[in-house]
Amino acid sequence: MSRSNTQELLLDHVGISVTDIEAALAFYDAALAPLGITRLMSYGPTGGQIDHVGYGSRFKPYFWVGLGSQASGHVHLAFAAPDRASVDAFYAAAIKAGGQDNGPPGLRPHYHPGYYGAFVLAPGGLNIEAVHHTFST
What we know:
It is built from two helices and nine strands, in the order βαββββαββββ. It is an alpha+beta fold. Helices cover 18% and strands 35% of the residues. The N terminus is likely disordered. The chain is globular and about 50 Å long. The strands form two sheets. Strands 5, 6, 7, 8 and 9 form a five-stranded mixed β-sheet that branches. It has a four-stranded mixed β-sheet with strand order 1-4-3-2, with helices on one face. A hairpin with a 2-residue loop joins strand 3 and strand 4.
């Protein structure tokens, strides 16, 4: 596969399963809002109960939360933040919404000098992160 220097490879979407969808949606609504990520789409089985919700930016959902058996093992999702203030706001909102601290906002120079991130364990144990990269040219 070839690509130009300006083209990026992107992950189209990712989905997670949760056992308590109402609690999960309340958490993700609050935690992702500071990053500009909101509910864009939902659907459910016959009868109208919502059991899958797609979060994203603008018009495209790329993070899906669905009712099902919780995944076990280490799962880590990192969401891009437009600036450091958004990382801080994500962390505060996620903690207030019931997340557990897994690394407060700050520089992580062991990744690279401009890596600024915050980590929260969501209900159910998923490790979510907001990260802003500053690269010098």
